[in-house]
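Format notes (please read before filing issues)

Several people have asked whether sequences and structure tokens are stored in separate files. They are not. Every record keeps both together, in the order shown below: the sequence lines, then the token lines. Line labels are part of the format and must not be stripped during preprocessing.
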Amino acid sequence: LLLSFEINLYAPIDLMQRVVPSMRSRGGGWILNVSSATTRMPGPAPWGGDERYERFHREKGPTIYASTKAALERMSAGVAAELRADGIAVNTLAPVEAVASEGAVDMGTIDAAAGYEPLEQMAEAALLLCSEPPAQCSPVHPEKLGDRVDRDPAIHQLRTHHAAHLGTECQ
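Then the structure lines:
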């Protein structure tokens, strides 16, 4: 339990605290935290015993992991508000499905029904969130990305699957 929070919440906080002074002295910057679609709440119970959500939680136990990522999203949103005046954009990016990293594959947390989020797509979305002027970023929900969906394939793919979480949109 503690290790999960240390890796997924405390480490990003520590890293942010270390880079913010330098970003302030340079007049701005970007912080991108990687979250998870496991933070999304399921539909209301009861679930069928064979439903994927219930099976995933019963067999893989992502509750602690999801809780740490939910805390990261909330912390990132608060820090984004705190640092906006400094020209520092803080975003969270959550893959729609499992990212086929070596760790996820080795742990067996990716089942046959899972789709895979291509690493290239995550990289494109990360670059998009960290390439616009930081002062132009403001909190929005992914549904409000407007014509960015048509202009950017990474955003289109993430939004199409209805599970992207972009802490901010750069306009």
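For reference, the curators noted about this record: The chain has a mean pLDDT of 75. The longest strand covers residues 88-94.
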